[in-house]
Amino acid sequence: MLHFLKWGTTDVAAILAKEDFGPTGTKNLVPASLERTRERMKVAPTARDAGLNLTIDVTAYDNGLIQVDGVPINNPAKDPDPSGHGWLGAAETILIVLGEFRRQVQQRTH
Predict the structure, then answer these.
(1) Residue-range domain boundaries for the chain
(2) What is the model's pTM?
(3) Per residue in 16-28, pLDDT tens?
(4) Which of 16, 30, 33, 75 is the most buried if burial means most Cβ atoms within 10 Å?
(5) How far is CA 19 from CA 50, 52, 62, 63, in A?
């Protein structure tokens, strides 16, 4: 189950903390919390400090493990991923990082 964020949502932390149940009925937590996102984001000013630069590292291992900024998104040993849920989780995590980056850019310019 993906949790979609609407632009302008103010309670992002509550949305990110929601629990989910995987296809096997086991409890999964959303892989990105707001605290973890802020801690792991790679944001730096541009060369002349005219803006901000965000770097997102996505790693896909041969065993099926997907990581975003060093955080594992799926566990291929417990749940093989033929339907691509790890990639969907990675996309969701990247969306959360972009949302936080957008907030930081807006805070900087206002």
Answers:
(1) 12-109
(2) 0.65
(3) 344 444 444 444 4
(4) 16
(5) 39, 32, 28, 26
